[in-house]
Amino acid sequence: MSDEKSNKLNRRQFMGGMMAAGAAYTIVPRYVLGDTGHTPPSEKLNIAAIGAGGMGATNIEAVSSENIVALCDVDEERAAQTFNKYPQARKYKDFRKMLEKEKNIDAVIVATPDHTHAAATMMAIKLGKHVYCQKPLTHTVYEARRVTEAARDAKVATQMGNQGHSSEGVRLICEWIRDGAIGPVREVHCWTDRPLGYWPVGIDRPKDTPAVPATLDWDLWVGPALKRAYHPAYAPFKWRGWWDFGCGALGDMGCHVMDGAFSALKLNYPVSIEASSTPVNSDSEPVAAIVHYQFPQRADMPAVKLHWYNGGLMPARPEELEPGRKLPESGSIFVGDKGKIMCGCYSDSPRIIPEEKMKAYPQPAKTIPRIAGTHEQNWIDACKGGEPACSNFDYAGLLTEVVLLGNIAIRTGEKLNWDGPGMKCTNVPKANEYVHAQYRDGWTL
Q1: In-domain check, residue 227
Q2: CATH number of residue 99's parent domain
């Protein structure tokens, strides 16, 4: 095989999921299949967004060089700034009505609370729209599997909003580990400071029922979740800590922090997951937790243990870390037979520790393709027939499944033996109740 062909193959493999184990599927640009609906790179996409405040506003701004044709948000006040910025875009509260009515939409951004991700994403996919969805991809393991399958069948361009996956840092970590910089990796420590101070945790749902703000459609905000009364403890933003709406610290930061390990170590389904935490209740996530994932051997890579910490809990300080040098607030440590690599939350600023060992390390060639532009632009390029986006759903769906398994372990408090392909726990029947959530009447996947 010529060097040119070899480089092309490596690029396709990487863009299809950073060479994640088991990812044999490659997305083919629609024009190759003779789809006349293909949008040439020279033409602008018609983009709609579901969720126009918060992170959605940032995503919309990143693709504003395209045509922003429709915007949807259930909270007029929270979305007001974005609505005003794009006066030409038609405005909606119910994404279902928007997707049904706006026939000219090419691509959709989904930036809602976690519990609505799958419903909005799946509807867009079934209508043949490209989708950019915020992390975690879905609220449940089951949803992640089904959305991934649907996107693959529809051959649409997809991307999850874990922007670190487009970064230089994650590529350096992959290249260093595959170069043998720290030898075989058998253990990884990943942590975040959240949820400290970000949202309510470890509490029961509020009993009082204040009035719903006039600008908020609470029924649409609740969406597929079981109905409950409005309270400012849920919206905006504070929904992350409530099991019915969010996925806690793991869902918020796991797809960022664990991304480097997932990519560099070619992780697939774990064989077991076990957690310990502060008290757990049926309404909200605990104040702090530790989760232990056990992954089997992958090809030439040994079995590896991945440890997750949140709520202020941290791994032991590495002996290799120089006095006065701090661990980042969120980050990872890769423990190899010959050394350690430490990086920040988004796989940023990776360094072999101690620093003198980093300086002595001869850098390997940059063999993994780099992303030009933003994470959102990487998706836009894919929508226009380019290479699959780097965190497309074939990669992001599996990562999301693994991240959310940690929440199941937290909620059950038992060691779970996991059948990945079968999507079930084989030793704790109760765990399977958390694989998917019950939708209320009128909502389907």
Answers
A1: no
A2: 3.40.50.720
3-state secondary structure of 50: strand
Does the structure show a pLDDT above 90 at 13? no
Q: Are the C-beta atoms of 325 and 342 separated by less than 8 Å?
A: no
Nearest to 400 by CA among 143, 227, 39: 143
Q: Each residue of 230-276: pLDDT tens digit?
A: 999 999 989 999 999 999 999 999 999 999 999 999 999 999 999 99
CA distance 139 to 300: 33
8: domain range? 3-163+375-392
How far apart are alpha carbons 19 and 14 in whole angstroms? Answer: 5
Given a cut of 90, whether residue 81 has pLDDT beyond it is: yes
**Same domain, yes or no, for 337 and 381?**
no
Q: Three-state SS across 64-80? A: CCCEEEEEECCEHHHHH
Is 397:269 a contact under the CB 8 Å cutoff?
no
3-state secondary structure 153-184: HHCCCEEECCHHHHCHHHHHHHHHHHCCCCCC
344: left (phi over 0), alpha (psi -120 to 50) or beta: beta
Tokens of 89: 């875009």
Nearest by Cα to 17 from 164, 117, 165? 165
In the chain the first and final C-alpha atoms are separated, in Å, by 44
β partners of residue 310: 289
- pLDDT exceeding 70 applies to what percent of the chain? 91
Output the DSSP codes for 238-306.
Answer: GGGGBTTT--HHHHHHHHHHTHHHHHHTT----SEEEEEES---SSB--S-EEEEEEE--BTTBPPEEE
Q: Give the chain's domain count.
A: 2
Written as one letter, the residue type at 215 is T
In a domain, 439, yes or no: no
Q: What is the CATH number of the domain that holds 180?
A: 3.30.360.10
- At 415 the three-state DSSP class reads coil
- CA 394 from centroid of its chain's CA atoms: 12
Domain co-membership, 182 together with 117:
no
Burial of 243 (0-12, 13-18, 19+ CB in 10 A): buried
In a domain, 155, yes or no: yes
Q: How far apart are CA 327 and CA 317, in angstroms?
A: 8
